Structure to design on (583 residues):
């Protein structure tokens, strides 16, 4: 067993003009000299503004893009090696599943269960095994009762859940969510985040959540901030979000609790304590205010 | 009366007379004012999108009337296109609708269709571009060479260039980072001030609603669930969570402190507002 599931060394990717116009996505900027080590079972959020290179990184990790230079090891295997085989690519994509932003772009079949079965079928698994995997994957995302529904009639959140089931059915080691909640309403978001966390905690799947929502990132164990194609911050979620000044300087924000404590600090009220979650922020403020009263 | 657009007892039914018949809006009355930004919230299936499509005549009410400046927009159905110049609708992910050779031509498409002179078109394009932060250099580029955020802004400028009396934006900041959100949404406030128009903002982000809107309309189950100022709506976070919506994190923090006996007052739905309330409390007689 290898402790790190993804290891990236001095990874650089430069889009040449042809590729940049072909991809035509929000984030068609490259990455520069990134090194990163993600441990098995981690729950990591990747933050960065539009065009920071975070989606490029995701696409490099499951071999949608090939690096210009640098090394990527997935589960200890150097996928950037000269002699890395064609078959190896499929193995990487099975191990590192990706859920994209637009639910309408990732469903291929006309019936939910067929969509989920698409991956396992391509693995050439026996019928019974495919059936087992499809049922189990749909139950994990709470979509069992939609097994024979048409995907295009589902809500955005339900579509994403089907897309996730399709990935789960491949038994991946890692799932990368590339802004998978950006197009969802609050309920859909809550569902997808819930599934993400359940997969991480109960199934031990490594989760990488690329997001613009600070409150989502705040739930991860570790946050990696990418700016201009390089990693500018990497650490425990709590530590990253307490550095409000640094986040602001690269156009990002902290969760509102952290922002509130930071604002008070700027106004000359120095408050010690945590503000990552709303509950923590309430405790911190309440204790501070109580302390002030009792001292008097 | 400052009211510009009004729905009067509007009902909208999809697939009427078919087995798929569904009431999407049920006897809804609501009005939108000049010089105000109104937020429209509600989860998927609440009737929000149906309402948006009724505002500029993409849908025709099954029952009831849509009034623009007091006149029924369906009085003369052949002239409904004129309503669409006055009520500009920016759909979700509008950047997928960019098509022209240059950003300048793309933004100028609607004004040109209005039959304006080239000079006026140029003027409108400059004005709209400035409002959303599109530079002269970007105007000469192909829209497909812009970044995602820039494309979004160019697409919004295309609607703004019509100088609509009512500007409806469906999730204009979806998928953008905080800076991009601020740039696009911050411009709205200015737009409303300068043109005394009415802006209707559909968003799932309560933080953005709290920050940019004057009023909020909450939809649930094909009906209006609540209408009020931002303060009125977000001070009742329990009512919101009953219909699957959240109030901004900071207003929940303020509500919990109040519950514990800290009397906070003021704009308790933005970070700055809660900060000021806390500062007032600390500096006031309480301590």
């Amino acid at each position: 067993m290898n402790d790190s599931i993804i290891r990236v060394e001095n990874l650089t990717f430069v889009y040449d003009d042809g590729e940049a116009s072909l991809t035509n996505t929000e984030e068609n900027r490259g990455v520069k000299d990134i090194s990163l080590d993600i441990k098995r079972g981690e729950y990591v959020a990747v933050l960065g503004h539009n065009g920071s290179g975070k989606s490029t990184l995701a696409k490099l990790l499951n071999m949608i893009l090939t690096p210009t230079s640098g090394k990527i090891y997935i589960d200890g295997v150097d996928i950037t090696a000269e002699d890395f085989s064609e078959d190896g690519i499929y193995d990487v994509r099975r191990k590192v599943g990706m859920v994209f932003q637009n639910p309408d772009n990732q469903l291929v079949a006309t019936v939910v269960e067929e969509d989920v079965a698409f991956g396992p079928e391509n693995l050439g698994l026996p019928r019974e095994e495919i059936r087992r995997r499809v049922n189990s994957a749909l139950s994990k995302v709470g979509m069992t009762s939609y097994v024979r529904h048409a995907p295009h009639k589902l809500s955005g959140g339900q579509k994403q859940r089907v897309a996730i089931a399709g990935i789960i059915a491949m038994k991946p080691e890692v799932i990368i969510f590339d802004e998978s909640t950006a197009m969802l309403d609050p309920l859909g978001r809550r569902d997808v985040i819930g599934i993400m966390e359940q997969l991480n905690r109960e199934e031990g799947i490594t989760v990488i959540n690329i997001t613009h929502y600070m409150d989502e990132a705040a739930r991860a164990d570790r946050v990696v901030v990418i700016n201009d194609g390089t990693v500018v911050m990497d650490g425990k979620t709590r530590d990253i979000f307490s550095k409000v000044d640094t986040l602001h300087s690269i156009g990002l924000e902290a969760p509102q609790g952290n922002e509130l404590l930071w604002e008070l600090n700027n106004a000359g009220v120095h408050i010690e304590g945590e503000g990552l979650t709303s509950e923590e922020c309430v405790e911190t403020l309440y204790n501070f205010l109580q302390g002030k009263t009792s001292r008097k | 009366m400052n009211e510009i657009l009004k729905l009067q007892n509007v009902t909208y039914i999809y697939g009427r007379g078919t087995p798929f018949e569904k009431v999407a809006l049920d006897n809804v009355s609501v009005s939108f004012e000049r010089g105000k930004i109104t937020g429209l919230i509600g989860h998927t299936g609440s009737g929000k999108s149906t309402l948006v499509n009724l505002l500029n005549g993409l849908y025709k009410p099954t029952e009831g009337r849509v009034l623009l400046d007091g006149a029924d927009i369906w009085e003369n159905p052949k002239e409904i296109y004129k309503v669409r110049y006055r009520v500009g609708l920016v759909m979700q992910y509008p950047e997928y609708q960019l098509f022209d050779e240059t950003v300048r031509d793309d933004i100028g498409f609607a004004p040109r269709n209005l039959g304006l002179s080239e000079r006026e078109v140029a003027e409108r394009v400059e004005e709209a571009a400035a409002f959303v932060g599109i530079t002269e250099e970007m105007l000469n580029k192909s829209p497909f060479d812009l970044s995602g955020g820039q494309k979004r802004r160019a697409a919004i400028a295309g609607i703004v260039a019509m100088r609509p009396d009512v500007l409806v934006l469906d999730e204009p900041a979806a998928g953008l980072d905080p800076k991009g959100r601020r740039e696009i949404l911050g411009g709205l406030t200015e737009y409303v001030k300068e043109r005394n128009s009415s802006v209707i903002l559909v968003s799932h982000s309560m933080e953005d609603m709290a920050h940019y809107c004057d009023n909020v309309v909450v939809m649930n189950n094909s009906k209006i669930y609540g209408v009020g100022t931002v303060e009125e709506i977000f001070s009742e976070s329990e009512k919101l969570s009953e219909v699957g919506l959240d109030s901004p994190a900071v207003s929940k923090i303020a509500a919990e402190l109040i519950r514990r006996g800290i009397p906070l007052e003021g704009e308790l739905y933005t970070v700055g507002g809660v900060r000021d309330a806390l500062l007032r409390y600390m500096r006031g007689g309480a301590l």
Notes: The CA atoms of residues 146 and 154 of chain A lie 9 Å apart. Chain A touches chain B through 46 residues (CB under 8 Å). Residues 19-27 of chain A have pLDDT under 50 and may be disordered. The beta strands of chain A are 4-13, 31-39, 43-47, 69-74, 77-78, 96-99, 174-178, 206-210, 222-227, 230-236.
